[in-house]
Structures are given as structure tokens and as C-alpha cells.
Design brief:
The protein is α/β, with parallel strands linked by helices and about 300 residues long. The chain is about 45% helix and about 20% strand. It has eleven helices and eleven strands.
Length: about 300
């Protein structure tokens, strides 16, 4: 797949596979809700939990380290619910195929929309989220706030056909999915609404496992020394941009309520790493309230402080 100014040319085989997968996703997306969430989801859950035992050791290790005060029975219960959450997120993501703005707003309601829109008036902004619930639904922020185009930052996949598939699934009005390595350049080039032009919102899933540098700052997160990507904080301080935490409250299968909390108003004098620290504390609070909704199956703590 050749790359040219963020445009990709797929080989014939890759294009065929991408079209085939998108067609299958679209077939699932148009199925009745009860079929998707009470037949297919239950089937995927059964395979993940009882057949594949998907990353069971990774999940249990992460849970034991994060919650040393909880007994094994409780941790196994959380793990089983994690499999349910993983199955549901697969169905949620597949169901994005051909989704309309109205359908997305039904699946991700936004009671805090007015507070968020009023807080963003007249300036670009940054949204920081975590892998809680269906993080793909955060794209609804671009629909609820039409004055701000959402720049959804993602990590490209190594498989070209799958990468193209996810780009197509993320094609939501007023949202631009931009690869991580190109996101800063895109944001700086297009920021600052003038006249009829819209402002930008940089959307960051900030609980990934970032690159480690010799001067990486360590935070205490879920009882473990952890490094976080600091790009969101650095951009906010350099350009004096407000920073919001955006999260999800589970309502029922496939449906959530979006909420936001202001972390930084773009003007306050803050200490170094304070914005990231505030983000971590809110994220940690949400994880502890509903631990099964976080993505425990990824290897978040690859780096160790003593290395």
C-alpha cells in the first residue's frame, strides 16, 4: 500500500479483502438489535471465554497488580465480565458500518453536550479519553458540536486491508481520522477557525502504552508505576488550549451516555505534568467504578521503572 499525503493506494487483493470485510460488517450492522447483542455477542463471548481463553494470563496479571486488595474470586468475576465487554465492543465496532449520525446519537447520548459546547466556544480544544466501554463512540462529539471538527487520532494497523477497513468504519460526519504520526502536523495546519471555518478538537485515547524515553515521567496509576504519552499536555500548554476528559457511562448493551470533565481551561498556571495527572485521576476513578469496562487485555505495563 503506497502512501501519498495521507492517501493510500491498496493493491487489488487488499482492496477486495477490505470491501469483503466491510460488506460483512454492513450485513451485521443492519441485523436487528436483538440478533447483534443477544445472539452474536453471546456467541463471541462464549468463544473468547471458554474456547480461546483470550489473553487470560495477561488480564489476570493486570487485575492482580491493579487491585492487590481484592481476592481471586472477585478478580476472576471481573475477568469474565471483561470477556463480555470485549465481545460487546466487537459488535459495537462492526455496527459502525454505514451508521448515520442520528443512529450514533441514539447509541451515545450526551447529557453534558451543552456544557461541553459552551466551554469550547471560540477556541480549539483537546479531548482525552481512555479505553473504557466503546471508545469508538467518542466520535459522536463531532456530531454534537458541529462548530468543532473532531480530529480522531489513531494508530495505523500493520495489515493494510484491516487498516483500510477501520478507516471506513470511522468515517463519521465532522470527524477526520488521522494517523498518530501525522496528527500534530494536521492539527497545527488546520487549527484556528476563522469566519465560516470551524475550530478543531484533538481527540486522544491517552491510556495507550507509549514509547519510553530516558526522561519519561512516571505516574502512579492503578497501584503501578506507569508512563503516559504527554503530547496532549504539551500541546495544551504551548497553544493555551482547554483540555476535557471525555468518558462513557454504560446504559445497556451497545448504548452509553457520554460525559465530560474540564481538566484545564487553557489559562490556569499549572505545574509540569499536572494536566496529565488530572487525566489519570479521573480515568482511574472511572476504571475503579466499573473495572470490567476497561481494556485489561492489552499489555499496558510493558515498561518497568527499574529498567
Amino acid at each position: 500500500m503506497a502512501k501519498d499525503n495521507n492517501r493510500y493506494t491498496l493493491t487489488r487483493g487488499e482492496k477486495f479483502l477490505s470491501n469483503l470485510l466491510f460488506g460483512l460488517c454492513r450485513l451485521v450492522a443492519i441485523m436487528p438489535r436483538w440478533v447483534r447483542y443477544y445472539v452474536l455477542e453471546d456467541f463471541i463471548y462464549f468463544i473468547l471465554r471458554f474456547v480461546l481463553h483470550y489473553r487470560r494470563d495477561v488480564i489476570m496479571t493486570n487485575l492482580r497488580n491493579a487491585f492487590p486488595e481484592r481476592d481471586e474470586e472477585e478478580l476472576r468475576s471481573i475477568m469474565h465480565k471483561c470477556y463480555r465487554n470485549l465481545a460487546e465492543q466487537m459488535i459495537n465496532t462492526i455496527s459502525l458500518a454505514g451508521i448515520t449520525p442520528e443512529q450514533l446519537k441514539q447509541r451515545a447520548t450526551f447529557p453534558d453536550a451543552k456544557k461541553y459546547i459552551d466551554g469550547c466556544k471560540g477556541d480549539d480544544t483537546i479531548l482525552m479519553a481512555g479505553h473504557i466501554g466503546c471508545w469508538e463512540y467518542f466520535m459522536a462529539a463531532g456530531i454534537y458540536n458541529p462548530t468543532h471538527k473532531l480530529v480522531s487520532v489513531f494508530h495505523p494497523l500493520n495489515n493494510n486491508a484491516l487498516d483500510d477497513l477501520f478507516r471506513r468504519l470511522r468515517k463519521i460526519p465532522n470527524t477526520e481520522a488521522i494517523p498518530r504520526d501525522e496528527s500534530l502536523r494536521y492539527f497545527l495546519k488546520n487549527r484556528g477557525g476563522k469566519g465560516a471555518e470551524r475550530f478543531l478538537t484533538m481527540g486522544l485515547i491517552a491510556d495507550q502504552n507509549p514509547y519510553r524515553h530516558k526522561d519519561s515521567h512516571w505516574f502512579r496509576f492503578l497501584n503501578q508505576d506507569t508512563i503516559f504519552a504527554e503530547g496532549g499536555e504539551q500541546l495544551a500548554l504551548k497553544l493555551h488550549l482547554p483540555v476535557w476528559y471525555i468518558g462513557l457511562k454504560y446504559r445497556r448493551r451497545g448504548e452509553y451516555d457520554i460525559f465530560v470533565e474540564l481538566l484545564y481551561d487553557g489559562k490556569e498556571e499549572v505545574a509540569e505534568f499536572e494536566i496529565t495527572e488530572r487525566y489519570i485521576r479521573v480515568l482511574e476513578r472511572e476504571i475503579c467504578a466499573a473495572p470490567h469496562l476497561w481494556l485489561w487485555s492489552h499489555r499496558r505495563w510493558k515498561h518497568k521503572k527499574e529498567e
